[in-house]
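Possible regression after last week's pipeline update?

I re-ran a chain I had predicted before the update to compare outputs. Posting the input and the new output here so someone can diff against the archived version. Not blocking, just want to make sure nothing changed silently.
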Amino acid sequence: MKRRDFVKGAIAATAAIGFSGCTREMIEGKKNVNISRRKKVKLKLATSWPANFPIMGTGVDRFAEKVKAMSGGSLEIKVYPKNILVPALAVFDATSSGQIDAFHSGPYYWKGKNPAFALFSGLPLGMVASELSCWMNYGGGYDLWRELYAKFNLYPFVGGNTGVQMGGWFRKPIESLADLHGLKMRIPGLGGEVMAKLGVNPILLPAGEIYTSLERGTIDATEWVGPALDIRMGFYKVARYYYTGWHEPGSILELTFNKARFESLSEEHKAILHYAAEAMTAEMYHEFMHENAIALEKLKEVQVDIRDFPPEIIEAAKTALAQVVEEQSGESSDFKRVFESMERYYRTIKPWSDISEAKYLAIR
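New output (post-update):
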């Protein structure tokens, strides 16, 4: 045997012995060492909800757990309920300034900063949850949202959807448009502005004051979300009439990061946040659907009177909405741009929605 061939054979044999001695436990150990040595990142996220708040609050907690698991523990999110780090409606400013890294809330709370922000929660009598998701991802919604939020050093994701919300709880039945005149109702956002055109006096109240105000007659009506959350508030005890909804057909919730902080993350961590947010959005929507169905049966047991608004009110609401949109568009070019984008996509997707789900739901 030539010396060169002997050397090659010896090297090959040594390599074989080396690989045969590299057990699965050793390989797994090396993986764990790599994970443990990876730089760990911790983010502070504040919500606008109380601790353990059903669906919305608990959904964020599960999101944080998923992020930690998907990252092998290298990315941790500490969730702070409202008023722990910052007040419920101060999360936008706190994240913008970098005081915290992220927040979970609703875009329509920030309409005072830019009227267009209300539209990213959805539009009264507009697109439902699935259609809004399509607009966000394929119709330019995300591009507009992120462009406008970037001016505040923010980077948003859709962070859930409530689905169609109910129209509210009323102490007395609403049988005509005249019954709305002078009515004091807790209702925020664009829905409140439309109701104002119909003669309602919209009132903003924190969650903790709504039941007492309704019980004492300080307000005559209130909207909240849907059966799953409304039944926990006990509104059925002081307001018997529960109306189906039109003002929030698919309200988007947001998971928004400080833009500079988000961009400083690794591509791996950015991807994890992206897909964990999508998972949370789907889970939250499905949980709302499930829990609303269960709660609706309980409300029927306590003989809640569930009604539709009279047709004249719905028609008047459509007219009022057009007036609100025209006024807001005249005052804000951003509002006009976002609304026109929504409207274009609505015209694109409505024909399919009408001959698919709408037809099926009508005949099933």
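Follow-up from reviewer: compared with the archived run. The domain at 168-249+302-341 is CATH 3.40.190.10 (D-Maltodextrin-Binding Protein; domain 2). Marking as no regression found.
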